[in-house]
């Protein structure tokens, strides 16, 4: 695999503090933090609004994760813009589009059909923004620090989700959902300013013009690679089904949904901190399978409808399993040529987000027919089965990576 010629020639990055001394990473990190906070607030506000208006588990679940359906459209059409020659400008423009969409949700009396339409538009452009951001991340930090950087961003995502759900629950006691959307729009705007003032444009990019043809050329090469296919399957499907379980929290326990979502975010934070910061690369890969099982197994307790304290502990423990994405993402990066890192990471993120939407839709649909607790248990069982059945393919992908490294 070609060496990362865009990586800074700085001393080895071995801690979060040393990462944050990198001005570009600090800018990407701050912008990402603000974006997650805005997304959490707006998603919680919209889910609450839809639940109050419809009392439908399906519509509530889809409203919280519906934007993820459109991310696959970005991956299939214009994701090559993530590897364009001016990624900073791309991120700023896409952040501005998100700002318009979030602000539009604040319009009083907006029909639900229009709100769901806005979700799809936002999901499409957010997927492109994620690809551009991850492409820049791979260039802004040394390759050896990539997992550490992703770990910090995942930890922050969990932390901001905890804070966002907690703050969102408080805000909704005093503000209307439309007013919470205004707060989310302000955070999105600030994120755009941070990127524009801290991140530079990178020149190690594709010479071909981004567009539909370039997107499809790279995607065909990506899915033709058996190792990358196996990694993408495991990054997308088990996680998406468990996010579907989380999408039923409002329907399962309306008065405790915020606490359950916060518990899940806290567990994810702990898992990413432990796996990204404390484990070596070899140990991360060794424990990846166990973490994927941990992600689903505690949700089997929902079958017996245990006390809420037990449910919160189960959700917390299970969410630590989301850290399995770190070693899988690390392997995917090692199998990816440098010039298309942004697009491949964008496709990975878009597929993962799309499967979150699919998981939420499946969960909501099942919960229309059976009790939410039964639906959660069913999705957890399917997630475990997929993880077990697909394990040999992931091991084979690891063998391909080792063979390439020794070639």
Verbal overview:
By secondary structure, the chain is an all-alpha fold. The protein has helices at residues 16-20, 23-54, 57-65, 71-77, 87-105, 112-140, 146-174, 177-198, 212-224, 226-246, 249-252, 257-278, 281-296, 308-319, 325-334, 341-367, 372-406. Helix 13 (281-296) runs antiparallel to helix 17 (372-406). It is globular and about 50 Å long.
SSE map:
Blueprint: H1 16-20, H2 23-54, H3 57-65, H4 71-77, H5 87-105, H6 112-140, H7 146-174, H8 177-198, H9 212-224, H10 226-246, H11 249-252, H12 257-278, H13 281-296, H14 308-319, H15 325-334, H16 341-367, H17 372-406
Search tags:
disordered C terminus; 407 residues; globular; 17 helices; disordered N terminus; mainly alpha
Task: Tell me briefly what this model is.
The chain is 77% helix and 0% strand.
What Rg do the Cα atoms give? 20 Å
Structural class category = mainly alpha
N-end to C-end Cα span: 10 Å
Number of helices: 17
Q: How are helices and strands ordered from N to C? A: HHHHHHHHHHHHHHHHH
Portion of residues within helices = over 70%
């Amino acid at each position: 695999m070609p060496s990362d010629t865009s990586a800074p020639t700085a001393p080895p990055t071995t801690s979060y503090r040393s990462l944050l001394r990198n001005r570009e990473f600090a800018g990407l990190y701050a912008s990402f933090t603000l974006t997650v906070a805005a997304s959490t607030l707006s998603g919680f506000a919209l889910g609450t609004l839809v639940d109050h208006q419809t009392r439908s588990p399906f519509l509530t679940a889809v409203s919280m994760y519906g934007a993820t359906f459109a991310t696959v459209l970005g991956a299939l059409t214009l994701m090559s813009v993530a590897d364009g020659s001016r990624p900073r400008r791309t991120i700023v423009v896409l952040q501005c589009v998100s700002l318009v969409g979030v602000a539009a949700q604040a319009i009083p009396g907006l029909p639900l059909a229009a709100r769901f339409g806005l979700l799809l538009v936002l999901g499409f452009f957010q997927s492109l923004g994620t690809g551009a951001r991850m492409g820049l991340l791979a260039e802004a930090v040394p390759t050896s620090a990539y997992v550490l950087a992703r770990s910090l961003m995942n930890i922050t995502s969990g932390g901001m989700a905890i804070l966002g759900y907690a703050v969102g629950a408080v805000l909704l006691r005093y503000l209307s959902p439309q007013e919470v959307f205004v707060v989310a729009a302000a955070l999105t705007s600030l994120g755009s300013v941070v990127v524009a003032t801290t991140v530079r444009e990178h020149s190690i990019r594709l010479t071909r013009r981004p567009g539909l043809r370039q997107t499809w050329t790279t995607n065909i090469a990506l899915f033709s690679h058996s190792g990358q296919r196996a990694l993408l399957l495991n990054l997308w499907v088990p996680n998406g089904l468990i996010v579907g379980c989380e999408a039923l929290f409002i329907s399962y326990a309306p008065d405790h949904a915020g606490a359950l979502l916060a518990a899940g975010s806290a567990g994810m934070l702990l898992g990413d901190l432990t796996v990204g910061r404390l484990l070596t690369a070899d140990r991360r890969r060794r424990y990846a399978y166990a973490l994927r099982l941990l992600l689903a197994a505690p949700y089997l307790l929902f079958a017996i409808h245990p006390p809420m304290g037990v449910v919160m502990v189960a959700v917390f423990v299970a969410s630590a399993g989301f850290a399995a994405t770190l070693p899988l993402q690390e392997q995917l990066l090692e199998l990816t040529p440098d010039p298309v890192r942004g697009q491949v990471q964008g496709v990975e993120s878009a597929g993962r987000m799309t499967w979150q939407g699919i998981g939420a839709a499946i969960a909501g649909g099942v919960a229309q027919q059976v009790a939410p607790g039964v639906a959660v248990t069913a999705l957890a069982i399917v997630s475990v089965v997929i993880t077990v059945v697909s394990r040999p393919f992931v091991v084979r992908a690891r063998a391909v990576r080792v063979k390439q490294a020794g070639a």
